[in-house]
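COMPLEX REQUEST
Ligand: copper (II) ion
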Amino acid sequence: MIKQTLLGLAVVLAPMLAAAHSNSEATTPAEGATVADVPELSMRFDDPMRIVSVTLTSTDGDVEIERETGMEPATEFRALPLEELTPGSYRFDWRGMASDGHPMQGSFSFTVAE
Ligand SMILES: [Cu+2]
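STATUS: Structure written out below.
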């Protein structure tokens, strides 16, 4: 829970924190980070998570990404942007199913520098 708070995910996940399901531990880019480029997007979980859907949104709308991780539960999820991300703010949203069967969702945001 502490790690989630540091990642800024607490607001999104707060209603579900009481249960013992898998939680997001770290993301790439990191929550709130400013980065020069984004070769890949990734999330790590402390327990296998089946990621059902992901979206990457910029101020101009949805950005196309391609999943590297399939629909099987995994402790690491990876996706690739299909085009170079232009400078600006982005938000990555995901929905999934924790290993205890609970539906989960979360998001992280980052900025691509000018
Ligand atoms: Cu749970």
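REMARKS: The beta strands are 24-28, 34-35, 41-58, 61-63, 65-67, 74-81, 88-98, 103-112. The domain at 2-112 is CATH 2.60.40.1220 (Immunoglobulin-like).
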